[in-house]
Amino acid sequence: MKWLIRNFFKTLRLILGPVLLLKEKMTAPQGLVRTPEAQQEVDRQCRDLALYQYRACPFCIKVRQETRRLSLNIELRDAQHDTNHRDALLQGGGRGMVPCLRITDEQGNARWMYESGDIIDYLRGRFTA
Hints:
By secondary structure, this protein is α+β, with helices and mostly antiparallel strands. The chain has a single domain, classed as Glutaredoxin, CATH 3.40.30.10. The protein has five helices and four strands. The protein has helices spanning about 1-25, 35-45, 60-70, 85-95, 115-125; strands at about 50-55, 75-80, 100-105, 110-115. The mean pLDDT is about 95.
């Protein structure tokens, strides 16, 4: 019975994954327009951020859409297919859950933020004023 359920969900992911990715491409939002100097400062601040994600995860898509809307150039790290990123997520954040935003402060200390809603609220609060 477990085998049947596991294969059902694998098949469902194989079918829905490309559909979700197509929808993401077709509904990509327009980015926030800033002055070149302001965008350069935002890009500098984004160097301290990394988003651990799976390509076809609906919650990760939600966060990526918001980064596009806010015109944020955040490094995307594939925790599904890249074992180095998966291991870093498990070691640093303590959980293999995605999406996860790694926030590094000026002293090099990392903070790991889970939950798409929390990540979006953080990005909106930090990059819209």
